Amino acid sequence: AREKKQMGIVEESYQQLINISRQRKEFEEALEYYDLYCELRDKRLSSEMIEKLSELKKKYEEVQEQLVDTRQKNSLITEAIRKKMNMSFIGRSQAIRKVYDLAMMAAKHQDTNVLITGESGTGKEIIANMIHFVSNRQDNLFIPVNCGSIPEALMESEFFGHKKGAFTGATADKAGYLQSADLGTLFLDEIGDMTFALQTKLLRVMENRKYRQLGSNQKIKSDFRLITATNKDINELISDNLFRVDLFYRINTIEIHIPPLRERRQDVEPLVHYFITHFARTLNKPVPRLAAGVIDILEKYSFPGNVRELRNIIERAMIISQGDTICLDDLKLRNKICLACKVNNLPCMTLEEMERKLIIETLDKTDHNIGATAKMLGIHYSTLSRKLKKLNLSKNYS
Description:
Layout: H1 2-23, H2 27-86, H3 94-108, E1 114-117, H4 124-134, E2 142-146, H5 155-160, H6 177-180, E3 185-189, H7 196-208, E4 210-212, E5 219-221, E6 225-230, H8 234-239, H9 245-251, E7 254-257, H10 268-282, E8 289-290, H11 294-300, H12 306-320, E9 325-326, H13 328-331, H14 339-342, H15 351-365, H16 370-377, H17 381-390
Parallel strand pairs: 1-6, 1-7, 2-3, 3-6, 8-9
Antiparallel strand pairs: 4-5
Helix pairs in contact: 1-2, 3-4, 10-12, 15-16, 16-17
């Protein structure tokens, strides 16, 4: 701006000198001033033209970037809607119906934070999707993030985004998860794997929904709904100083626990029929029958991988089955059926029942010394105390 002003002053000076030279009839000198004036004017006009072209180019690039973002957003929304349309809530057990009722209640309150707990493979992301697509935020993005899959060095950039030049390799502006989830839902899977430092920054964002991108001093506001999930014991992480207790209180306004499949065996049969129909359609095969005993065997299986494992079992059976019937051999489970139940000729037990049995036996060996029992089991004293309370054993061994 200063350079333009100076050039304008010089141009006016040349014009005055031209007029003075003409009045004196010094035409040769006037011509020299006129040449200098034209050269300076052309230089100014060229500079202005370059500046305008640069602005037009910048606006064009911004429009193109917005177009790409819009196309990506529309693509993601379309894909998410497709998943929603194909997603069915399968199960008839009382435990899974309770999960469904809690999810529907959470969906009615679009700003309420939800914590979903359960073992790997129980379907935590499906419940998160369901909450989002039943809520008033359904027309905006559902951003799923696996906290355990992001390298620690990139976590802050991935969550908050960065400006061009913020660090080595930042060649362009980048929107983070928080910005992408604006007006939608941010789903943080395996939040127990989030670093303590990032937990602190996330807590600050949760307080006012404002944050700064790396390399910027400007605050950005993002109106997102937070849903988190974990297969870890958050209370144990808090005791081990690996998780902030104040963040825990922030994220679990509503807590939804999904029981493992082995604790709701009533859901095995409807899930089996659902997966068979699904893979018959995707593999372009007729829907097969189930041989006698298949459902009975599956209902007795311990399913360490939960619903995800059942899905893989049925998919494999559908692929290798050559006839119109799925047999026991197609399941490839003969050496795995209730493996935990057969060790030492134990009766069929759930994981919780086995844990209860092991703790009681160890307590008996240590003459009910909780400290010695915790040491023998390789866990913290506080962890054992919580387990005793959870298993309703604290009154007997306090």
